[in-house]
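tool_call: predict_structure(chain=1)
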Amino acid sequence: MGTVCRLCRREGVKLFLKGERCNTEKCAVDRRAYPPGDRPKRFRRKPSGYSVQLREKQKTKRIYGIREKQFKNYFKKAERRPGITGEILLQYLERRLDNVVYHLGFAPSRKAARQLVNHGHFLVNEKKVNIPSYLLEKGDVIGVREKSQGLLVIQTTSEKKDEKTLPSWLLLEKNVWKGRVLELPARDAIGLPVEEKLIVELYSK
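tool_result:
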């Protein structure tokens, strides 16, 4: 079990930081359903309100693999827009290029997707983009560069991708190595175990 497995155990839920491994019997959360460094029957105090809010923020940051400064910037942008701040925050995170590459099945995890984007393996509207935090808009087309379609990690992950797990706001065209943003993600289309209201409460203090 690596460091990222400890992160999942600390949050008490699967963050899918190791891709398909998280769905196997080797998953650390299934094998040791208690925080790292703790014992299953050890007495633990009831967490405070602040602690619950902090853990929710940390969990969300770890799911998307971003640092505090960048996460806070997303929150500030969401706060300035009309609408429900927490939902807009999640929408920003979901629209990141590395996250969409992961959802489309071109990478086994968000971390791997971030690395592949950094190395310039993907196109957005036929132009190379190597910025993982690039925010996609409705109608944008994401494609794998022709010379990158033979990469084993992309081929293997794409073959295993079950289109039933694809978010409703995305369209995948496997045969041409492309995906499309059909619409901006609504909250009910973001299937994450996150209570965004707690994050808003934390930053609003």
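agent: Residues 6 and 37 are 9 Å apart (CA to CA). Proceeding to next step.
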